[in-house]
Specification:
By secondary structure, the protein is α/β, with parallel strands linked by helices. 28% of the residues lie in helices and 24% in strands. The structure holds ligand LLP. The site of ligand LLP has 21 residues, from helix 10 and helix 11.
Length: 423
Amino acid sequence: MNIPLTEQLQYHNGQLHMEASNITSLATEYPTPFYCYSQARLLDNIRRCQAAFTPRGIAVHYAMKANSNMHILSLISDQGLGADTVSGGEIQRAVSAGFPPERIIFSGVGKSAAEIRQALEVGIGQFNVESAEELMRLASLAETANQPVRVALRVNPDVAVDTHRHITTGTKGNKFGIEPAQALKLFREYASHPRLRLSGLAMHIGSQICDATPYRQALSRLLSLVSTLKYEGITISHLDLGGGFGIDYGNGNSLSFEDAARTIAETLASEAPDYTGDVVVEPGRSIIADAGILVTTVNYVKQAEPRPFLILDAAMNDLMRPALYQAEHPLIPAHRRGPSATEQFDVVGPVCESTDTFSRNTPLDNAPQAGDIMAFLCAGAYCSVMSSGYNSRDITAELLIGQGQATLIRRRITQADLMQFEQ
Ligand code: LLP
């Protein structure tokens, strides 16, 4: 495994720094574990993303499920991105963080009536509908809306994607999306609905996809639906192509914004040269993942057979991806002692479950010792947002490094905080 360091995360004299902040020093100021994000890296990712998509006429909506910290969201909305949301809570956060309602898309397979009402009141830009049943519910709730409600149908294009089976979404048998034939029927049925403006098609084929081919195939299927609809007099003016662009977790594979944007633009140019509507993508992970790390302390190096355990103070409740998807996040020391032999460890947390294992047979150098500060890399997306308080552990703090200083953007949520909500 390579160590995917970034320009903003580097060793200086053996000490790991995020921008100008020394991680070891931060860990003396803030108790570990904590998440730490680089503002410069986040902004750089957004810049590269916009540079690839904007000139090709493709708008970017941040999929905020990847990281919905309010401070992070305001930085992202300040850069002019829209938001992709999947719950009433995300809509509330998006609006508070300054995303203009018309640039908020509401996706998700199980929107409740209360969430739909909330989205209608806020006046969000588009509902991505995932079933006939949802469309019916939306139509009846939209009766009292004072403006037409823009709707896209999320189609399941049934393409194979090479990623973890738990994060593929665009193949038959997934709960997501509508089959193209059924979408066609719904378009006919709702074409002249007085309140709903059914004018879009959406797709999202999965996450952590490192090859552009499935985007080409899926978009191609969407475009053949666009032309069938056109033949019937129904015009599609909004295409939402989802997110999923893979990042390098250390195995060298990723899908750059540039490659994704080029593939989408080429497919559109060759298969739908007269399409003049909007095109949107919804990246989440690729915007924030490599801007974040999880800083942790080695609690013990437990000698055992067949290998020693490295027992950290971070656990599966703080970083769930390894337990849930067998995901590997590279682990590196905050202070390099100098050349040393590489040893194999099983890296675990203190939670009382065998699943609380970050990795097995992990080669680590630097002769780890109790008290060492270490960092899990690429932990900006789907990490803090998926954390819990299992085992009555505190919920991890989040720091942002930017403009030469560290700012606490979420304080640690302690047991005293949590106990207040219980009788
Ligand atoms: N749009 C829709 C409709 C989505 O469902 C998702 C992610 C995205 C956009 C953003 O995809 P991204 O660009 O972040 O890959 N917890 C998992 C990932 C679940 C992704 C769910 N949907 C993980 O930790 O890998």
